[in-house]
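Hi U.,

Before I forget, here's the chain from the pilot set. I'm dumping it here mostly so it's searchable later in email.
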Amino acid sequence: MGIIPNKVQEQLAFFNMHAPLWVANATSIGLTTGQATIFASKAADAQASWEAQQSQISKARSATIEAQAMIGDARATCAALIAIIKGFAENSANPATVYSMAEIPAPAAPSPVGPPGTPYEPRVELLQTGAIVISWKCTNPSNGGGTIYEVTRRLGGSGPYTMIGGTGVRSFTDDSIPAGSGSVYYQVTGVRSTQRGNTATFTVQFGVDGPGLTVSDVSAGPVKLAA
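Structure:
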């Protein structure tokens, strides 16, 4: 380990402590008075330079904080004025002229929202009451909120589907399944306003390969979950 510390502040403290000591005892410790005096001068210059540096760092930090605050204030004011300009433009006879004079872009026309997605990857849970909860995944357009899922049901492999309800979430509880049902088919369709997504058909089978139930996606083919 060296005698002179590695950290700047510790080095300065070392210099400031030893410089006057070495000047006072120069000839007694093998130095000339000139050598000790030069070192003392350099130590003082180093201390002064470091203090000036710290002062500049402090000023720069304060200036940065002040600049950020002023830029933020200007941005907030600018945003408020843009909002006023937009409101004025939309209520004017020629909005495009207002936007052009202000040299800000006119709002882009909203893109049409696509239809709801197709439900997939069904899951099923059997409740103690005998009801089942069927759930699914569905990828809808990012700006297409408000999707409702219509659920229809068919008991057995043939016959018409009957509407049994709707849900605003990706699951539905069916508590009206007749006792002794073997296979139950569900059709789930996402609906938003006048748009309808593709219908998915899920099959729930009771007592397949032992107690319990399984669910499969008819359109996808393979069984997704065994419960």
